[in-house]
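Dear colleague,

Following up on yesterday's call, I've attached the two folding results inline so they're easy to grep. Please treat them as preliminary; we haven't cross-checked anything against experimental data yet. The first protein's sequence and structure tokens come first.
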Amino acid sequence: SDHMENIYGYLMKYTNLVTGWQYRFFVLNNDAGLLEYFVNEQSRHMKPRGTLQLAGAVISPSDEDSHTFTVNAASGEQYKLRATDAKERQHWVSRLQICTQHHTEAIGKNNPPLKSRSFSLASQGSANSPGVQRRPSQTAVSFFNVGHHRLPTGKRVPIMQPDHLVDVREMMSQAEGQQRDLIRSIECLPASGHLTSLDQDLLMLKATSMATMNCLNDCFHILQLQHASQQKGSLPAGTTISWLEPKISLANHFKNGAAQNFPAEINKPASVREEQSIAEPCQLTREPEEINPDEELEDICDDKEDDLGAVEEQRSVILHLLSQLKLGMDLTRVVLPTFILEKRSLLEMYADFMSHPDLFVAITNGGTAEERMIRFVEYYLTSFHEGRKGAIAKKPYNPIIGETFHCSWRMPKSDVATDAASSSSAHSLSEQVTLSEDPEGQAEPDHYTVKFVAEQVSHHPPVSGFYAECVERKMCVNAHVWTKSKFLGMSIGVTMVGEGVLHLLEHGEEYTFSLPCAYARSILTVPWVELGGKVNINCAKTGYSASINFHTKPFYGGKLHRVTGEVKQNMTNTVVCRVQGEWNSVLEFTYSNGETKYVDLTKLSVTRKRVRPLEKQGPFESRRLWQHVTESLRDGDIDKATEHKRVLEERQRNEERLRAETETPWCTKYFLKDGDGWVYHKPLWKTVSAAQTQQTDSN
């Protein structure tokens, strides 16, 4: 092939935290299937500093930026490399992938398959009979006979021809049946006694057997691609064979130990067929839509996530998932089982953080810069409790790129705390705004309205933008968040990368803030949520800042959900307020004058958000987009929810593939790229500035 050329050049290679990135001269040796590197070009004739075998390797462009990529060898060794620009990265990645594919296929053609091995239950009667119990001296491992089918001596296994794939499929079907029998036998064991269904060795056997079957299915898929390439002559240039998602659906494969059949196409519900009818890449308008708050109705949905039954029933699925993960592994692209999902999108979860809009609006009513910062800290710390739906740790839906969520809140003006010192001036300014925006002199409403919009602006990496504003009080908040999930052993950590900015336009102040990390603990028993990390809130104009620590529970002793913080004046380094307590219970604020204030979060009034009915929502608005998944979860039908979710995710992959083939960039609807962040397309600070300019010109 013309693409099988030896290429060379300088790339940056990441060494370690101390040394960091270093320039090295890399050579791709296509004939040998090697990636070699040297200190510099002049040392090419010497022994290379490092060499990677590319057969069986995985070449992955990084989500960090457009320059970085990784080469993961089959041996487990990894090179993290960085090109000078996106074009050069694509050049290296495509050549490496072609070379990798060529040498991987060569190994598959020139080597016979490995000797097969199978696991069979000991002939001790039916698994349901009471006789299937071990003696006290019998171990969990010895309960099962592990047999190797040996081939007759002197006979060599013939190289498998493409027409033998039918036999392979039949053998794999038998293996899947044996694996199901194995799982049933384990789960039918008594809950107590010498040998139980919760024996750690048996749990590990269940997890690894499921992982093995998924791996075999992936290998079979690669064999099918090789068969297709042999029939067509060769694969087109640039084609790569990649590992797929598990062929055995995690949530579908077992439901409390019972084997589940995959639904036939003809038996799919009408809602799935409806989703599939729009599963083809669709050209929907990306023009921003102005949502009329009067069309929104008070939300009557109340999906609490307190059901623990599903987690106990799906223990084997969780163990299977854990068997595929490694410490520190990025979970962004890992497909999680459906039963652990909340009944809402991540975009709606961000909206639920604003369930106390009265505290949000009250920030700008603070009479001094100090009081406004303290009010913001109070609002910030009260937002996380209502953002969680129950004590159990469940995961919101991963938003699909282009997905949006709209809502609003209304609250009587009398419910919003004011400040006597600033009420007259604020009222005067409010009158000016009302007169300039309402020349017909209509009666001023007796309530404040806070409008919210969120959009999934990127898929890889997964970035969400959200914006909220209260026009009457001339305040708004704009934020973007990149959720990075990592596997930490018996817990999962989620880092919220990004920044938010609160704008108080009446005072000309901007408050920048970050978000804490979240952790799902005890994922093998009853998972629960914990927040951790340090966040900072700063206002450059006033010189006030806040430092807040979310404390994770120590291994021994200590309290859950503890938070501490302080507000200080940076110029004088004076602490004006301290806060301590639990972010989901009671917070104690101690002020510089000695006064103390307690806030019981469990007794704070929650303002229900207002959302348009489903029939008035667009096809990419969260609740309409995920409605069939949500309905199935409410009904407890995990299989149907999984199928609906799969259709939505497959549509996203198809559209992403089409954009890549046509080199069509994704166009966002409500948010615009601004440096490393995302900004709402029509923020309040721009409209207010334009209105003030127009008023000045008219005067």
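Below is the second protein, in the same order (sequence, then structure):
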Amino acid sequence: MHESDERYPPPLCHPGTREVVVTRIVGWYLDNNRGKKHIMWVQAPAGYGKTAVAGTVTEKLKAMKNELGFNPVGAAFFFWRTSPERNSPSRFIITLAYQLAESIPELRPRIEAVVKSKPGIVKMALEIQLVELIVQSFKCLPDFNAMPNRVIIVDGIDECINSDRESRVQKQYAELQEIVQIRVLNLIHCLQSHHLPLSFLILSRPEAWIKRHLESSHFREIVEPLDLREVGDHMSDVKRYVRVELSRIAASHGLEGVEEEWPEEAWLVSESDGHILYAATVIRHIDDPYGDPRQLLKDIVNNSAKSSPVSHSTPLLSLHELYRQIMRSCPERNRTLMLEVLEDAIAFRIRNIVRRLPCGKVLELLDRLSSRSLGSGIKALRPLHAVLRIGSMNEPMYSLFFHSSFTEFLSTPPISMEFSVDLNRGQERLLSNMLNCMTSITMNTISEQLEEHILFSLNNWCPLWSRLSLGLFQISRAAHICMIEKMLALDLSACLIRSYLSIDDSQKRNRYHSPVWRLFSSPEPSNFLIQPMQFTECGSIIHTATSHTKSSVEAAFISLLQSTELPDGSPRAVWLIACDCVDYLKEVVSRADWKENKLVQELRSPGPRGIALFMEIFQQYAPRDLRGYIYKSMLHDRNPILEREDHPFQDLPEVDVGETGSDTGIDSKSQSLLAGL
């Protein structure tokens, strides 16, 4: 939302800038004669301040509440590609519904009633959420057509890149980004088609598929397009912004002539060509407490003159040249380390769960994982304060980069040239370093306190390996074999147990919070380490890796069921272990010889400290054949677990146990009763 803590303070236009476009948008909303044009699409390339415009429009409209007699902003949603909660549409509809219940009090009772009667609505398909929470809530009001029109502001649809599904092929993954963005547009179209008292302000880059969809016959008659580049005097906006900022820098650095124009000021305004991101990046670069701002600006001018083919090109190319100049300003002796830390940081930001960690903590973790001296990562990145938020190390990791155009620059070698970073290499190094850290985990050290980077490795190696298995990053065949050899050298069962024991009860139960759930969610967990590469000439390593995974997983579950020495896991840990165990048992039971499996046999008689785990396994969706087999075995063995009032086989028939019977010694009458389990 506009006011959410995650994006506070919300980006706004610099005072006195973008006034024409803001006025144009507000005028569109207030115009009662706009006919069918209930959607305005504001588009511009990266760095034209679309999000700032959206924030300023929101503030301006909310300030009109007393004048209009109602809050004209019904809801807002700001997508952002590096935020795990804002780069997918999963929270889009429920966030809009929540805000509509606040901004339109008449809707609140109806929306509350839906949530109370259908708690699962928050997990249903977005299209169902839209109808149940918003459309039907409006239509339950007798006079909703007479209600004043509210605007819903949706910023950064092109930043919605995560469909909550992973693809096995990078190309498919890219295609999913297009599909999910079109899905969001279709949700907006669906809302509009019900003729509710709502208008929609959409802001995005002019991506080809977005442009094509909004210009299609479905949208053409209802969309008011607005090219941000063609509205207002952008040069005047940049000039005003630069003048204010240079005066501020002069005052804060104690320079003479605070209000005087700098010799390079006109050049900076001209070079930006109305592209405010360019000017803002230069301002951050020269606003260095350890440098001379005027000399830094002169250096940019002088270096730009040496790159004349670029400096007279489009603003985005000028921005890329500026990025190269900023990178070149870093000491040459530190550049290799700087690029390595950037690769590590970008690879780290892929992990949704950990991207909320503060930048300082993350860079320290990366130093420890890479065996660098502590603080060397921050030191290597310090000259990049114009493009990275490293002034305060308490900023969350997902907001490390000021603008996505810098990460795009780094990952495009023809543009960044000698400063390009290789995301595949960064993820490979991160995974390799994690596996190195895990070598210290054995059954003898399992109860010891772990250093933070080792615990981080235990909890994050599996999701990163999953990305490798799904083809979301690529390494060479030799590197993959090297990774497998590192895994074979680990006490994997001890690593699995230790990662489970690190789970506390600080969060709600969520299946996807298990540190290794991806291992057990794969079709064949035993083959997790060798997917997707086909080692036609390495049959031995395939067999060894598969056998190692299988034996380690089973040894971990058996230890947790039978050990008398392991520390007790938290209730949430026991629940997650049971989830993973059930998923693994589904693969086991699919084999013809599953009854001879060691884990299956141990389930017949869990140890005293493993009973809680046993109960969770069979209170969940354990395979049907397995439930029947274990129940028959326990009946035969007269296991005291069956005397508990809460034993997990309450739904199965009670039978008398005889002295004979196949498999478990059950008599023929009991065999007949249990045959269908």
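For the second protein, one point worth flagging: The chain has a mean pLDDT of 84.

Best wishes,
A.L.
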